[in-house]
Backbone:
């Protein structure tokens, strides 16, 4: 099945289903996610999305704000990166440890969800999406362990379960394999390069010069199901 290019890039929304929680998900992932959510509930968890579909424009705004220093860039140790001595390519690499290149984000597809356990968050707690919330004794640790054990039987997996030299470990990020893999197989470096050539994105020259490496390290470099 051929995926619409605009859906690949996060430039359209008619492949999405709106949910009562106020998030959007791919229509093909709607039923599987509801089944997963129900199973998690039966196991004692309140599986909720912190983020799901993200448009190209939203991803672009995040990227440009980080590149310009308006939003902090964190390294894999959770520390803020000082971008002042870095060249453009070094800044791009720092950003991509946690924020995907616009046009190449899995969140564009509506197949991927950043989750949390709403039942375990203290009142007034602001979720940060950091490893300490999902590892060991963090509020989402038990749900994360349950999902890592059970998500595959519902078709979901953790694409960033391990740090593989590109995107940092993201234990809060699950993906519906069958549909996401179809989208990924049709996403090509040169197509993203063409899109970004006419986009007001910071670090454009560095991105275009390294687009093949970006795909190898930060797009296709994911954990197995």
Residues:
């Amino acid at each position: 099945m051929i995926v619409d290019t605009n859906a690949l890039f996060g430039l359209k929304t008619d492949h999405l289903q709106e949910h009562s929680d106020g998030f959007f998900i791919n229509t093909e992932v709607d039923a599987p996610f509801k089944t997963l959510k129900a199973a998690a509930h039966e196991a004692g968890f309140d599986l909720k999305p912190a983020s799901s579909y993200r448009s190209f424009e939203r991803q672009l705004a995040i990227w440009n704000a980080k590149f310009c220093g308006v939003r902090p860039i964190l390294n894999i140790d959770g520390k803020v990166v000082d971008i002042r001595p870095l060249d453009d390519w070094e800044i791009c690499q720092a950003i991509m440890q946690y924020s995907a290149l616009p046009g190449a984000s899995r969140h564009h597809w509506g197949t991927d969800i950043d989750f949390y356990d709403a039942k375990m968050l203290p009142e007034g707690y602001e979720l940060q999406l950091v490893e300490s919330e999902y590892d060991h004794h963090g509020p989402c640790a038990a749900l994360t362990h349950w999902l890592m054990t059970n998500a595959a039987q519902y078709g979901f997996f953790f694409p960033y379960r391990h740090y593989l030299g590109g995107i940092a470990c993201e234990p809060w990020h699950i993906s519906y394999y069958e549909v996401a893999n179809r989208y990924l197989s049709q996403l090509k470096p040169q197509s993203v390069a063409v899109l970004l050539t006419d986009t007001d994105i910071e670090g454009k020259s560095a991105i275009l010069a390294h687009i093949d490496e970006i795909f190898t390290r930060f797009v296709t470099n994911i954990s197995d199901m």
Observations:
- The two ends are 21 Å apart (CA to CA).
- Residues 5-219 form a domain with the Muramoyl-pentapeptide Carboxypeptidase; domain 2 fold (CATH 3.30.1380.10).
- The longest strand covers residues 112-117.
